[in-house]
């Protein structure tokens, strides 16, 4: 006997991203043929109105579908959120309440995301800022963007960092771009490479400062020595 290998679709869990969840949930309920009762609700007959047997059967069938749809909502939505929904008499009540609560917050998140995109666009390394500090600032904004729904690949962040370093890293950027596949370069690898070059530059700068200081001291000592010699000559 042939077996049915059809896999039942999973109930979409609400994860805070309302637009995505509502699309999945609507499609799920449509596949179960419960969407009409969620969208339209149950119209109870006016008080005292007599129903025919077919009408009674249809009403009971709609109520049963409504109960099943509610059961799916109870599984899809965390208890902490369900407790904030005051009216849960029908599946339509729950659906409408979720829409009112979370569709507005989606607009707020969109506005915040736009602001973060602008911050990311103008982000640049400051003079004297360390590689560690700048990478941390970049990742902070990137993670906030991802939290607000931005689909951002690591390569986008890698390219942003390479484009926005200070001019003293120009030759380092050229070296990295020529020797590595940027699309395959991880953030950790990039930061490691930049740190190595930063340490080399810091050591070189320290050596130059020490050499300059030594040269200045030597010049100063020679000048004082010549001054003392001229003084003794005038006194003789």
Describe this structure in words.
With 236 residues, the chain is mainly alpha-helical. The protein has 2 domains: 10-41 and 57-122, no CATH class; 125-217. 70% of the residues lie in helices and 0% in strands. It has 9 helices and no strands. The chain has helices at 18-31, 35-40, 53-76, 79-82, 91-122, 131-147, 154-163, 170-179, 187-235. The longest helix is centred in the last third of the chain and has 49 residues, at 187-235. The radius of gyration is 35 Å and the shape is rod-shaped.
Quick structural gist:
By secondary structure, the protein is mainly α. The chain is 70% helix and 0% strand.
Spatial gap, N to C terminus: 128 Å
- The run of helices and strands is HHHHHHHHH
Any idea what the shape is?
rod-shaped
Q: Given the helix and strand composition, which structural class is it? A: mainly alpha
The count of domains is 2
Number of helices: 9
Classify the beta-strand content into a percent band.
under 5%
Return residue spans where pLDDT drops below 50 for at least 5 consecutive residues: none
Helix content, binned percent: over 70%
Q: What value does the average pLDDT take?
A: 85
Give the biggest beta sheet.
Answer: none
Instruction: Count all strands and give the number.
Output: 0
Radius of gyration: 35 Å
């Amino acid at each position: 006997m042939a077996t049915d290998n059809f896999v039942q679709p999973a109930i979409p869990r609400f994860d805070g991203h309302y637009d995505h969840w509502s699309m999945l949930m609507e499609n799920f309920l449509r596949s179960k043929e419960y969407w009409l009762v969620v969208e339209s609700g149950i119209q109870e007959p006016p008080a005292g109105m007599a129903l025919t047997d077919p009408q009674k059967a249809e009403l009971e069938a709609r109520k049963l579908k409504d109960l099943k749809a509610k059961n799916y909502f109870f599984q899809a939505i965390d208890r902490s959120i369900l407790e904030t929904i005051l009216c849960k008499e029908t599946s339509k009540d729950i659906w409408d309440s979720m829409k009112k609560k979370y569709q507005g917050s989606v607009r707020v998140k969109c506005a915040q995301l736009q602001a973060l995109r602008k911050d990311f666009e103008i982000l640049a390394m400051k003079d004297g800022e360390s590689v560690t500090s700048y990478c941390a600032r970049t990742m902070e904004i990137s993670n906030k963007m991802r939290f607000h729904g931005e689909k951002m690949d690591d390569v986008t962040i890698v390219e942003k960092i390479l484009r926005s370093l200070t001019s003293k890293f120009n030759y380092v950027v050229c070296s990295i771009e020529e020797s590595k596949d940027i699309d395959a370069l991880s953030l950790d690898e990039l930061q490691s490479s930049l740190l190595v070059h930063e340490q080399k530059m810091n050591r070189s700068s320290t050596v130059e400062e020490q050499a300059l200081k030594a040269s200045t001291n030597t010049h100063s000592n020679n000048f004082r020595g010549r001054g003392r010699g001229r003084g003794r000559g005038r006194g003789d």
